[in-house]
Amino acid sequence: MPTSSTLVNKIKVQLKLSISRLRMVQAKDSALAKQQRRSMAQLLEQGKEESARIRVENIIRSDMNTELLEILELYCELLIARAGLLEAKECDPGLEEAVKSIMFAAPKVEGVKELGIVRGLLAEKYGKEFALQALENGEGKVAKRVSERLRVEPPGKELVDAYLSTIAEAYNVDWPRGAKARRAAEAAGEGEEEDGGEDDDDSPSGGQKVKATVEAPLTTQELSKATPPRDMGPKSPISVNPPSPSTDNVRPKINLPGPPDLKPSKKMADASKSKDAVNGDKKAADSGPGGPGGKIPDVDELAKRFANLKR
User: Which superkingdom does the taxonomy of this entry point to (predicted)?
Assistant: First the structure.
């Protein structure tokens, strides 16, 4: 006989495999149920109501089986989460419902052989008497929602009608006759009530509706006269003082780079004029007959002057 820890490890492995198989079967049943609902809608549209009532029982049975698989998947996850409690020789009260529900449902669930292996390992862990109690549910420890979904009973007329009505509404089929128009009228009535409620809440006085006035768009001239907004987005870090005298900007003048453009003063201009006049007179005297000392004599005249001096 394997030890307790080894047996618990085997149970955990089979529980994980059971979860994977349960999810696969659920996905398969869901896809098959969609096809069956579509076929059921076609039967209702063709007026074959009796055939639809018989076949809808398969859909009901498939939905109940899918719900059962979801419950068993949750119980398997619960046992994995509380695997430490499986080490005890007796079944812990916190695990008794999950353990007995799995053992009760395992022989009746098709397509999940891993649950049968889990049931055998749990029977080996807790004994044959415990397994027999779980199978017969003598103490009522099996979850009620598990036992109800495993009953082999035909569904009631109300449940069948509810399924057919839901399928007809989902596929936009007029069943029973006139139900489509009635649903449209009910939807329209609910929409009007919602609109009326909104008007009552929004109206400022006495529930009277206030007409919203739509202003005409501005013309080009009005737009040109409009004052631009002050906030034009992020401001530039560089600011320029306006060219007007103020206490902060006394001389609103822009100095350009380069040598300054100097202008002579009046005194300097007068001195320059007088200098030009003197230079002009000197040039005139130099250019006159005799030059600055008079006319330069020639050789004969100089000889005569020397002769006169000797006398």
Answer: Eukaryota
- Alpha-carbon distance of 77 to 59, in angstroms, equals 27
CB 55 within 8 A of CB 43: yes
Q: Could you give the CA distance from residue 127 to residue 17 in angstroms, rounded to a whole number?
A: 23
At residue 292, the 3 state secondary structure works out as strand
Q: What does the pLDDT look like over 180-221, one tens digit per residue?
A: 677 677 777 766 665 555 554 444 444 444 444 445 555 555
Q: Does residue 138 contact residue 51 with C-beta atoms inside 8 Å?
A: no
- pLDDT over 90 for what percent of the chain? 38
Mean pLDDT over all residues of the chain?
Answer: 77
Can you tell me the distance from the alpha carbon of 218 to that of 239, in angstroms, rounded to the nearest whole number?
Answer: 33
Q: Among candidates 21, 226, 218, 3, which has minimal Cα distance to 113?
A: 21
